[in-house]
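name: query_chain
kind: protein
chains: 1
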Amino acid sequence: MSVFQRCLLAVCLSLPTLIVSFGNAFAASQPFTILHTNDWQSRLLGFGPNLEYTPATVGDDKTLGGVARLATLIDERRQTLEGQPVLLLDGGDISQGTLFHTLYRNHAPELRLMKKLGYDALTLGNHEFDFRPDGLSRMLESAKNHLDEIPAIITSNLELPPQQKHLQETGVIQKWKIIERNGIRFGLFGLIGKEADEVSPNARPAIFEDQMSTAKFMVRLLREEQKADVVILMSHSGVVQNPDGSWGGEEVEYARQVPGIDIIVGGHSHTALYEPIIVNGTPVLQAGSDTRYLGELSMIREENGNLTVSDYKLHTIDDSIRGKDSVTQKVAGFKALIDQEVMADSEYSFDQPIVKTPKTLTRAYEDPILGNLVADGIRQATGSDVSMTTNSLIRDDLLKGDSGIQSVSDIFRLQPLGVGMDNQPGYPLMKVWITGKELRGLMEIMSFAYLLKGNDYFPRFSGIRFTYNTLRPPLDRITSIEIGSHATGFEPLDMSDSNRLYSFSATSYVGEFAWVVKDLSYGLVNIIPKDEQGRPLPELQQSIVDRFPDKEGLQEYKNWQAQLDFFASLPDSDGDGIADIILNKNVTETRMQAIRSLKPEDMLRNATWILWTVAGLLFTILLLTIVIFVRIFGRAKKNG
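structure:
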């Protein structure tokens, strides 16, 4: 046998071993990728003035996001990653926030688009319950009528009421799911967090069960019974950055307290994480909100089952990405449905220009302009003396863009939330009458209550301005109140007057607070909502404003409709046929002014029994301290 023949024989004999070794090497470093989003919030168009969003072209607008651009990027990433397992997941709140969500129950635009983009699974967020459990059920039935199969919806700690229990019994909403790709078994489960539960009152009588115990149970089930190789939690719970730069929040706690979760795809806090938060080896992910980002987690699964993060990218969805035409056409179809079904009885249409803004107006605590305008809109619609909203209910900024022009769909986003007693989208406006003394009590609560919940709950007012001293005790801080505006003039409020009535308006969500003030303040503040004649109104329903009082029945005046009417009514200062926001003193003023003063006039002006009681207690404590000190000093001197 020649040397060549012997070498060839040796290669042939070793070939099986080489093949096995190559296979083991491949198995030892098997890659997979998780693509993820969260908090779509019905933001199917770009993040900016909707009239400037141009998904069919690139390089000609500054808007971020848009589901058509997102679709293109997802397609591109899948093509690049072809040959390895890829999952596309979402962390909840697919709905609520734009005019598109008005189609949620009857047409399910968000879920139908997620199917078109190829989502493998999503979890539910608190906003999926804004139209109550029945609204969620109707949305899912609508989606099933339009699709052969809907994306997997996985929420493990949800207990639906009997009327909607069939959604879980038939597998439309699942507690867990196994997806197998390229030999890897991915075990998925989902959670709605405690804070998300607290802000979803319309979810009742649905119940969200304990998150930690549910997570531990699901990890055991997926690992031990279902033999999952990778356990992924889709969470709508949120993360929080601490003052020292570290990360906390419910999703961090899941990773810290529940061993066995490999990846957490998060949501709810709208946090754009440019790199994962690694807790006990578990990457916690979140991709901002409003279809502005696509997260991409690259992982390696070793032969022994260990997982390591090999890379992470948070892709920005911007004008460098051309939108997918078929998705743009779908969105255009939904816009047409909104004009046909939602705007049919109004003078408005989706793309109609309403108003121009000279600059971007934000919801920031230190920026009062947008909050003042929204509160002014409520007061104009109701004809009230005083109106109120909070930062948390203003759901979007007014982004100037290039032109400053805001369309109907842009203004809708300012106050989009809720559902009325008529079961139609939007919180209705309410109006009641209260005395000067009660109005003062309400303002006292507003002057400190936001400190307990954060600046997102900072109140915004119209028709009133007041000053409060932060060095005085809560519920007795206000030093002065004036009723009116710069246009009509101001008059001081007699804060002790229990006879004269003032009309007060808000959304039903904010206004229902008036009926429970006494309980929440332990009887220190009492407000009795009344009609114009001063007769008590036992229920919120009796205070709802009728948009068309001449018509039969009650036509709820929705807050979003009030905002459209208000902004459209502003003066057209440049004669171009579009109203203008003019930044005059009335709009830019701070209507709730804090001072920090020990001056006697600021400490005592308009004080009530609360301040005098606190002062008396402090004086008594001081006097007792002096007496004790004198006795101790005297005894020490005598003994010395």
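note: Confidence is low (pLDDT under 50) at residues 7-27.
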